[in-house]
């Protein structure tokens, strides 16, 4: 049974194959006859000729278009090559110019660096020389303070704030000017002197010029309250300054103007003592403030101090440019107010006669 089934399948397959082949052969024979018939037809031959002509014409046209397109492309390519070459030439020139500029900049930078180096070396050399000179000057000052002798020459040089201008009369008398360093006249400051000025050293609220809704704030304090505060300041500061040497004059200003308010003037008996005091107090802190000490010249205390202030007759009042000073307790240094401390002292010799010493004053 199984073999019969297989045989039937093969027989059916073979039969279908014969049928397909016969159908295909019939179709091929029919198409071949149709082709031979068309080939023998004049119209078909004319059609084939026209098709061949059209194909040839189309091929020629396509070749022409390709040639024209190729020519256009070659022309564009030539122009692009020309532009590219010009661009490369410009870029090369720009690179050369940039290289030249960079070379110039580098050369200038090297020259500038050499100048800066030379300037730095010069400044360093100058700084070292200045430091050496400052050390020498400091040693001279220390030697002068410790052992005395002649005042170093470099300390005797005066500093002029406005040379070739007229001398400021108020600064010449009081060593203070309301215009300070912006004054149109000349302020001559000594390199060293026997008199020290400590600006705005003494402070009290009654000396401040401030207005409020109730009027002048300085009127809230009585004069005795201010003077009591001044005496505390006087007995606090004077002993400290006397440690540096003998004081010939000590004055504290009670002016309300900013350039005179609370200024303290201290005159020592010698320049050496004044320099020692300057070293001790300049930069020192007092009552939360750092002191700034200056050397100054007061030619005459009698001319610097306002004589009408103590008699309460000063017409300028708080705006007076002369010194309104507190009266020192126990009238200390009162003789200096009249410049009597600067008169030459009487010289004398002591002669012993019969065990008794006689003092003979020499008058000049």
From TrEMBL:
SUPFAM superfamilies: RNA-binding domain, RBD
Keyword Coiled coil attributed: yes
Ranges of residues in domain C3H1-type: 162-190, 300-327
Gene3D superfamilies membership: 3.30.70.330
Species of provenance: Asbolus verrucosus
Extent of Basic and acidic residues compositional bias: 26-44
One MF term in the entry's GO annotations: zinc ion binding
Stretches of the chain forming a coiled coil according to its record: 74-147
ZnF C3H1-type: positions: 162-190, 300-327
Assigned keywords, A-Z: Coiled coil, DNA-binding, Metal-binding, Repeat, RNA-binding, Zinc, Zinc-finger
Region described as Disordered: 1-44
Protein name: RRM 5 domain containing protein
Transmembrane portions of the chain: none
Signal peptide: none
Single Gene Ontology BP annotation: mRNA splicing, via spliceosome
GO cellular component, one term: U2AF complex
Biased composition (Basic residues): 1-20
Annotated ranges, domain RRM: 217-298
């Amino acid at each position: 049974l199984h073999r019969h089934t297989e045989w039937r399948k093969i027989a059916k397959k073979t039969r279908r194959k014969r049928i397909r082949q016969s159908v295909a052969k019939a179709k091929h024979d029919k198409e071949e006859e149709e082709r031979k018939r068309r080939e023998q037809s004049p119209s078909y031959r004319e059609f084939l000729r026209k098709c061949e002509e059209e194909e040839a014409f189309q091929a020629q046209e396509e070749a022409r278009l390709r040639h024209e397109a190729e020519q256009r492309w070659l022309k564009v390519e030539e122009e692009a090559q020309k532009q590219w070459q010009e661009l490369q030439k410009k870029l090369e020139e720009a690179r050369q110019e940039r290289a030249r500029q960079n070379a110039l900049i580098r050369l200038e930078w090297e020259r500038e660096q050499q100048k800066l180096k030379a300037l730095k070396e010069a400044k360093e050399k100058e700084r070292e020389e200045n430091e050496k000179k400052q050390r020498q000057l400091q040693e001279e000052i220390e030697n002068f303070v410790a052992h005395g002798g002649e005042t170093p020459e470099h300390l005797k040089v005066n500093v002029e704030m406005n040379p070739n201008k007229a001398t400021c009369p108020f600064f010449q008398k009081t060593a203070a000017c309301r215009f300070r360093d912006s004054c149109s006249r000349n302020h001559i400051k000594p390199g060293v002197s026997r008199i020290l000025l400590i600006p705005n050293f003494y402070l009290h609220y009654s000396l401040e010029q401030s207005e409020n809704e109730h009027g002048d704030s300085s009127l809230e304090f009585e004069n005795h309250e201010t003077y009591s505060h001044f005496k505390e300041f006087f007995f606090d500061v004077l002993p400290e300054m006397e440690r540096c040497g003998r004081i010939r004059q000590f004055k504290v200003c009670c002016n309300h103007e900013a350039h005179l308010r609370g200024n303290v003037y201290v005159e020592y008996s010698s320049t050496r003592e004044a320099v020692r005091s300057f070293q001790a107090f300049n930069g020192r802190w007092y009552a939360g403030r750092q002191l700034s000490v200056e050397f100054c010249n007061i030619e005459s205390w009698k001319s610097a101090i306002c004589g009408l202030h103590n008699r309460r007759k000063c017409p300028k009042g708080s705006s007076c440019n002369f010194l309104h000073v507190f009266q020192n307790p126990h009238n200390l240094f009162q003789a200096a107010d009249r410049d009597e401390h600067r008169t030459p002292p009487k010289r004398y010799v002591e002669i012993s006669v019969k065990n008794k010493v006689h003092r003979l004053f020499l008058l000049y």
